[in-house]
Specification:
The chain is mainly alpha-helical and about 260 residues long. It contains 10 helices and 2 strands; from the N terminus they run ββαααααααααα. A hairpin with a 5-residue loop joins strand 1 and strand 2. Helix 1 packs antiparallel against helix 3, helix 3 runs antiparallel to helix 5 and helix 5 packs antiparallel against helix 10.
Length: about 260
């Protein structure tokens, strides 16, 4: 087909309409990010977000305080934290806009999964953030800061710590989105439950590489990321099987309703 793309329902959307749809979704996403960042900056100023982020490391420092070496650091730290809080707040809107852009490729009986998928995706993202903040980050810091602690004293810059902590926390949040992503790819016909099961060993290697890349060098944080990824991968296989079975049942019902009496 030239100049257009077919949707699941058989209609054709011209290429320029795709671009216009993409532009509108990007605009809505940008607005959500700006609003989220404004709220995030307010939260950083009024709710001591920096103190919350610092909490996992405070008891591990000699003076229980992080340091900074540049007069501009507090300003840029505020902006960075405001953006991260804004990103977390805007996540449901961003997920909805992505769904709206990709949903024309789905059948009508599949589009009803939109709201549950966004809710589940948001819960999984927050679960990943919570796991990183309450479990992985404190124990990972304790392990890392115990190396040579008898001969070295830790004076950690706040910007270095925030880069480490926020990167780890956001990585866990995004990793926990794996089931939603794989289920949606399954609905698009890109992956299948059999394919996911067949290439499980390859996926394990990829997960190990991702975990080693996104976490510090200690085995604890690497395993703390890899094990949930393995569980989520297996859950994704089960979810894609269930959704495919429901999809076939829905298509059979639709064909039955559309057939002549």
């Amino acid at each position: 087909m030239e100049g257009g793309a077919a949707t699941a329902g058989g209609a054709e959307m011209p290429f320029l309409d795709h671009l216009e749809e993409l532009r509108s979704r990007l605009i809505f996403s940008l607005i959500a990010l700006v609003v989220g960042m404004a709220v995030g900056l307010f939260a950083v100023a009024e709710l001591d977000v920096l103190g919350i982020v610092e909490r996992p490391i405070q008891d591990l420092l000699p003076n229980q305080r992080l340091i900074y070496t540049s007069p501009t650091t507090p300003f840029f730290i505020t902006l960075k934290l405001g953006f991260i809080v804004g990103l977390i707040l805007a996540f449901p809107v961003l997920a909805y806009q992505a769904w709206r852009f990709l949903s024309p490729a789905l059948y009508e009986n599949e589009k009803r999964f939109a709201v549950p998928s966004i809710l589940i995706g948001t819960v999984l993202f927050l679960a990943g953030v919570a796991m990183a903040y309450f479990l992985v980050l404190p124990l990972g810091l304790k392990i890392l800061l115990n190396f040579h602690n008898e001969s070295l004293e830790a004076f950690i810059a706040v910007d270095d710590y925030l880069k480490f902590a926020t990167g780890l926390i956001l990585a866990f949040g995004l990793i926990f989105e794996m089931p939603v992503v794989l289920v949606f790819l399954s609905l698009l016909g890109i992956v299948t439950p059999e394919g996911l099961a067949k290439y499980r060993r390859h996926a394990i290697v990829v997960m190990a590489v991702i975990s080693a890349f996104l976490t510090p060098a200690d085995p604890y944080t690497m395993l703390a990321m890899m094990l949930p990824m393995l569980l989520l991968y297996e859950a994704s296989i089960g979810a894609t099987k269930v959704l495919r079975r429901r999809r076939r049942q829905g298509n059979a019902i639709t064909r039955g309703e559309g057939s002549p009496a």
